[in-house]
């Protein structure tokens, strides 16, 4: 039986596909290629292009191969865009997941690993953030992910669909082979933006605010390497298989870095000058987001490898040098 990776052509999904194939799993990938890249999908897996809101399409996929478990990465994930167009986010993220769950139910598939986000916490009261922290999202993106989390609890109770909810902090880096990496359009994330400035693809980094209550005034985030994150998905799947239970895990490195610290580390890694300028705060940015991933370490046996910020930036830099224009598949 196969593992169905929904959104497997995207940044995190494609790294999870690699990890699954490395473990000799049979993998089926679905992606609508709106933000994903066909070149990120290895030839060893079966690929279906289509949208999860299309239930007939989903049924065809589930009929084609017996599916044992689903990893669900397909979502829109830009906070700013979600503020401007919340309906897009509720439609793709919430309604799309509803269609997926209906199909899982009708085909008797009862295991789901779900990509959630630290955005469900909003501005947290406690740092580091544990899974017990109160959830109060401050933007539609986080709100849609929390709505799905709640839906999953009811689906477990009613239909016995078990889930692993993984709440990601700031995902960064690229596969050590340099073959797959981060290619977003538009790019809004700090590390790829800094590296684009390092290689002349953009003039400078705009630092969104230097008047936060942090030691250097810039925001602090917890950066997790995409391969470590993909590993956590494999461990979560194994736990679902063994124990048939549902859990929520935070996934971050546990150490926070400010925007200025990331900029300095990027200068060291790239050995280039990187211009930066202070700009106004970006609406909705909390000052500090830092995870406690203790639960994932203890219960999943998760052991992140790329814990230094330099190693995370190095892998992203390698990808950018090998693919300066990204996948170029559009
Ligand atoms: N950031 C910045 N300039 C940029 C992009 C991001 O100063 O061009 C800051 C942003 O305000 C936040 C941190 O970098 O404090 C990480 O932002 P990113 O968009 O990568 O992730 P987020 O934390 O929003 O999920």
UniProtKB/TrEMBL annotation:
GO biological process terms held by the UniProt record: galactose catabolic process via UDP-galactose, Leloir pathway
CDD domains: UDP_G4E_1_SDR_e (cd05247)
Stated name of the protein: UDP-glucose 4-epimerase
UniProt cofactor(s): NAD(+)
Swiss-Prot/TrEMBL keywords: Carbohydrate metabolism, Galactose metabolism, Isomerase, NAD
A single GO molecular function term of this UniProt record: UDP-glucose 4-epimerase activity
Domain of life: Bacteria
Keyword tRNA processing: no
Provenance organism: Sporosarcina globispora (Bacillus globisporus)
Segments traversing the membrane: none
Pfam families: Epimerase
Alphabetized Gene3D superfamilies for the sequence: NAD(P)-binding Rossmann-like Domain, UDP-galactose 4-epimerase, domain 1
UniProt entry tagged with the keyword Oxidoreductase: no
Family: Belongs to the NAD(P)-dependent epimerase/dehydratase family.
EC id: 5.1.3.2
InterPro entries for this protein: Epimerase_deHydtase, NAD(P)-bd_dom_sf, UDP_G4E
Pathway: Carbohydrate metabolism; galactose metabolism
Catalytic activity, reaction form: UDP-alpha-D-glucose = UDP-alpha-D-galactose
Domain NAD-dependent epimerase/dehydratase: 3-252
Quaternary structure and interacting proteins, as annotated: Homodimer.
Signal peptide coordinates: none
């Amino acid at each position: 039986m196969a593992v169905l990776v929904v959104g497997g052509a995207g940044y995190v999904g494609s790294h999870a596909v690699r990890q699954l194939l490395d473990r000799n799993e049979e993998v089926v990938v679905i992606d609508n290629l709106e933000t994903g890249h066909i070149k990120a999908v290895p030839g060893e897996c079966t690929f279906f292009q289509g949208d999860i809101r299309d239930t007939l399409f989903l049924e065809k996929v589930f009929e084609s191969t017996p599916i044992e478990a689903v990893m669900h990465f397909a979502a829109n994930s830009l906070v700013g865009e979600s503020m401007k167009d919340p309906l897009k986010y509720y439609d793709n993220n919430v309604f799309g997941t509803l269609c997926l769950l209906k199909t899982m139910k009708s085909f008797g598939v009862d295991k789901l690993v779900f990509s959630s986000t630290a955005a469900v916490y909003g501005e947290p009261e406690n740092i580091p953030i544990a899974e017990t922290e109160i959830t109060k999202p401050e933007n539609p993106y986080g709100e849609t992910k929390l709505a799905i989390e709640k839906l999953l609890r009811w689906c477990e109770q009613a239909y016995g669909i078990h889930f692993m909810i993984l709440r990601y902090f700031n995902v960064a880096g690229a596969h050590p082979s340099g073959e797959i990496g981060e290619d977003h359009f538009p790019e809004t994330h700090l590390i790829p933006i800094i590296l684009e400035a390092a290689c002349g693809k953009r003039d400078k980094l705009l630092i969104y605010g230097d008047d936060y209550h942090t030691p250097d005034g810039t925001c602090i985030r917890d950066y997790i390497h995409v391969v470590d994150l993909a590993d956590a998905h494999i461990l979560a799947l194994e736990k679902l298989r063994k124990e048939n239970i549902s859990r929520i895990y935070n996934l971050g490195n546990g150490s926070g870095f400010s925007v200025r610290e990331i900029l300095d580390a990027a200068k060291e890694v790239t050995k280039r000058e990187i211009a930066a300028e202070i700009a106004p705060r970006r609406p909705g940015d909390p000052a500090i987001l830092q995870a406690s991933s203790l639960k994932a370490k203890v219960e999943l046996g998760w052991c992140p490898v790329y814990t230094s910020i330099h190693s995370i930036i190095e892998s992203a830099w390698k990808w950018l040098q090998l693919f300066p224009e990204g996948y170029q598949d559009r």
